């Protein structure tokens, strides 16, 4: 019975399959002949094409070198945008993969640099979007690209910045955020009177005195008063005043629109997860740029 079924299947199979299974010869009875050897004319044509292509590449490279010597500024602008767009596109693809992972599985299983990319990339996309959209219009790139090159901090993202520009712009952004630390400190000092008399209140008053004089409390002193920042306590997210909340939003560079408390909670969770990952990976595994980024952003977690 099995033999009959196989015979029917083989009979219904294509002719080439039956020939392959039974070893039947092709229609000509011989295997296909090998391709004929190249003639002298074809070999000459191949050599000419190879020589022409190599000379073309040589002239393109020499022309690029000539442009760099005669028009260094124009070539610098060209390289800034070419390299920047390439890096931006690679980060955008990586950001899409990370966003899909977070939508399915949450932030579990992500590395520290992936969390930082998911945190930073939306800001870069918003900053670069006007330049990319306007450059798509006819002849608009002759205007928007020079303007973007003249004002890179406002019109371009970190992908287009040089190393020195990254350091300078990060310092400007840090000073702008730290400007909002003074109203936060004032809110903390005003709420001191709402705390009950006791050891915890005295410890918190000591910390406020250190901060007001320009000094910094140590880790042990901060841990002793960490209970004051619980959700239901005086300095928890549900108990802070409106001006305190607004100062925190400005401190972290977020907009003043909807869901400010929820966005502050999410930012605190994200910074905490990054801190845990830094502890697990070790500081020695981080590059100088990563160390600079962490020192500029994670140092502010104590303000939440």
UniProtKB/TrEMBL annotation:
Regions crossing the membrane: 128-151
Location in or out of the cell: Mitochondrion inner membrane
N-terminal signal peptide: none
Any one biological process term the GO annotation gives: intracellular monoatomic cation homeostasis
GO MF annotation terms: ribosome binding
Keyword line: Membrane, Mitochondrion, Mitochondrion inner membrane, Transmembrane, Transmembrane helix
One annotated Gene Ontology cellular component of this protein: mitochondrial inner membrane
Pfam hit, one: LETM1_RBD
InterPro entries xref list: LETM1-like_RBD (IPR033122), LETM1/MDM38-like (IPR044202)
Superkingdom field: Eukaryota
Chief place where the protein resides: mitochondrion
Topological category with respect to the lipid bilayer: Single-pass membrane protein
Record domain Letm1 RBD: where: 110-294
Region of interest: Disordered: 21-40
Name of protein: Letm1 RBD domain-containing protein
Native source organism of the sequence: Cloeon dipterum
